[in-house]
Write a structure and sequence with these properties.
By secondary structure, the protein is an alpha/beta fold. It has two domains: 1-82, Nucleotidyltransferase, domain 5 (2-Layer Sandwich), CATH 3.30.420; 86-274, Nucleotidyltransferase, domain 5 (2-Layer Sandwich). It has helices spanning 26-44, 57-61, 65-76, 85-96, 138-145, 157-172, 189-201, 215-224, 230-233, 247-261, 273-281, and strands at residues 53-55, 80-82, 108-113, 118-124, 127-134, 183-187, 212-214, 265-268. It has a six-stranded mixed sheet with strand order 5-4-3-6-8-7, sandwiched between helices. The protein has a two-stranded parallel sheet with strand order 1-2. A hairpin with a 4-residue loop joins strand 3 and strand 4 (118-124). Helix 1 (26-44) runs parallel beside helix 3. It is globular, with a radius of gyration of 18 Å. The mean pLDDT is 94.
Length: 284
């Protein structure tokens, strides 16, 4: 597949998803609908033969998720497909196998961290052996653990988040049982942001930077960037201001995964859910 255009909008539709009875806020639904309209308008210039709209954890878990789906249908004529956790994980895996840079990998893990969930997959012989979707998204965990987003990330938060992530993975039965040396692939906005920050520090574009993100880099960014108040975090080169409040929690989550799996690094890939959806739409 060849990418003709790509665009990501941070709209935080998952705000409030950690509540006991999660609901999408009115502001979140308005932002989400506007984002859908913008992306449809931008893609229209390519005259696509078909268009696929999907929703993941935030809409899937919200009590009023069907209301948002109906609102998008009324405004655009497009139907949103709400993916199950299993479908989301499977499509991420299908997308990853499209990445030519990963063509040589046979046994590997994949971790895709979003706002509402963390998808965990294990491939053996390039086939999915395990796939689970966990409610460990960075927006969800920030709402659960961080009481003051404007303050520096408190030092006692990391062990609490790490213990929570370990328990969730253990309860889901996700086993780190691939042969020693199996690569951990990271996808999603957080790992992309980590790499973008490193690239900015070296004065190069993301594409020109090394794809391997060391555990040491995650620890350093949590210490240095997480130690800043929110206003200062929003000024960090390569860190989208809209992600600044949840970024420390996202780093802590990736570190927790790496330490549980005994990984020294994540190999970054941009081939995630959207590539799996494209592959499915193309009959691949």
């Amino acid at each position: 597949m060849t990418v003709l255009a790509s665009r990501t909008l941070d709209v935080r539709i998952s705000a409030g998803i950690n509540e006991a009875s999660p609901r999408l806020s009115e502001d979140g639904m308005v932002r989400g609908l506007e984002a859908v309209r913008m992306l449809l308008a931008e893609s229209a210039v390519f005259a696509p033969t078909s268009t696929v709209l999907v929703a993941t954890s935030a809409v899937r878990d919200a009590q009023n998720g069907p209301d948002f789906r109906a609102r998008v249908k009324a405004a655009t004529g497009q139907t949103i497909r709400i993916l199950t956790g299993a479908e989301e994980a499977d499509l991420i895996g299908r997308g990853l196998t499209c990445d030519p840079a990963l063509a040589g990998l046979q046994d590997f893990y994949v971790f895709d961290l979003g706002g509402g969930s963390l998808e965990c997959l294990a491939f053996r012989g390039r086939r999915v052996q395990q796939a689970v979707s966990l409610q460990l998204g960075c927006v969800r965990l920030t709402e659960k653990f961080v009481s003051d987003r404007g303050a520096p990330f408190a030092v006692d938060l990391f062990p609490r988040i790490a213990a929570y992530c370990a328990q969730a993975m253990a309860s889901a039965g996700f086993a780190f049982d691939l042969p020693p040396g199996a690569v951990a692939v990271g996808t999603g906005g957080t790992i992309t942001t980590v790499r973008t920050i490193v690239a900015a520090q070296h004065g190069v574009a993301l594409e020109a930077s090394a794809p391997d993100v060391a555990l040491e880099t995650l620890h350093r960014q949590l210490l240095e960037i997480g130690g800043l108040p929110l206003a200062a975090r929003r000024q960090v080169a390569g860190l989208p201001p809209a992600r600044a409040d949840v970024f420390p929690t996202a780093l802590a989550t990736l570190i927790a995964v790496a330490e549980r799996g005994r990984f020294s690094a994540f190999r970054h890939s941009l081939y995630n859910l959207r590539f799996g959806l494209a592959r499915e739409a193309l009959g691949g």
